Amino acid sequence: MSLIPAEQAFSQLQSTADFLALTLEQPDQLPAFEFHLANGTRIAVWHTGVLLAEPAVPGQQDIVLSSGIHGNETAPIEICNGILSDVLAQKLQLTERVLFLFGNPWAINAGVREIEDNLNRLFSGHHSKDDGLTSEGGLSKERARAKLLEESVLKFYQQAPAGERVRKLYDLHTAIRGSRFEKFAVYPFLHGKDWSQTELQFLKACDIDTFLLMQSPASTFSYFAAQSCQAHGFTLELGKVRPFGQNDLSRFSATDKALRALVSGQPLSLSAFVEAEFNFYEVRRAINKQTDAFRLCFEDAIENFTTFPVGTVLAQDEGVQYKVEVEGEAVIFPNPKVAIGQRAMLLVKPVSVAGKVS
Ligand SMILES: O=C(O)CCC(=O)N[C@@H](CCC(=O)O)C(=O)O
Ligand SMILES: [Zn+2]
């Protein structure tokens, strides 16, 4: 696809205020360009799906809002594009610097989770590990995209004004299957540091009160943000995968409202932190698919966070059965279609965070 001139991209964005449409029309590449809105906000398009919005006098937070890392997870894409469109149309006045990312334009266009590789397994340098290079020695589409997204996020944080800053990255997803808790967040492994009370309170204002507390490093975008950028990074799971136009966005209105308040300096009514108002789960086991024989032993209708009696066979692979080991162990993200070697299911159990939140 040929590169459109910057002037054409600029005038289209100005007239439509729709960066998602521009990104999806030009999924391979967009010329970089920038301009100022009449309210002083600087808009800088860095790449297709990568746009910086910066108020004339930025507050102390640098916030990344990312969606579409998996192309068929559309509700988050609609939410983020709605926020960005209102920024571009000057209906929402930013007080904070925000980097908007539409993760995988090709997969969004195709309505699929991924094209060649799972983009959310390629961060923290995994994009450039040699086993995924093409026969010409280059990077696949998603590997190149993961590298570009990492570079963009690092540049965004590095270009922040001097002084004390708070870095955040919310990577919005939807789950493949239904969940007992419609909205939940994955809190990446913090290497023993306390979980952030302010973040838990903010996410509660987003109507998210269920957290998976990860216990080991990962190749996800949110772990990259937390570990390599010292940001408050989260994967937010908002409902179940549905095609564009079939999402009931009213179910995510609290999330939309809280994100808008965050980027525009509106007061957020954060309630006091009370552990009993949350569900915290710790990952006990990550089951990786070893062979093509990997099978789940329960139905597709089984929701995330479902528990089974101890001893129940949950999945089998060549020569191995995975059974429930302890009472209360619940399944999350079971997916037999992942590539060999990748995570096919998490087994989690409820935990208390007493003494580990500050
Ligand atoms: O429903 C599913 O099976 C997957 C939904 C999804 O894409 N989840 C993210 C979680 C990322 C994390 O662990 O932080 C993923 O699998 O990439
Ligand atoms: Zn996803």
TrEMBL record:
Zn(2+) binds at residues 70, 73, 173. HAMAP family: Arg_catab_AstE. Pathway: Amino-acid degradation; L-arginine degradation via AST pathway; L-glutamate and succinate from L-arginine: step 5/5. Binds 1 zinc ion per subunit. The gene is astE. It holds the Pfam family AstE_AspA_hybrid. Its EC number is 3.5.1.96. GO terms for molecular function: succinylglutamate desuccinylase activity. This is Succinylglutamate desuccinylase.
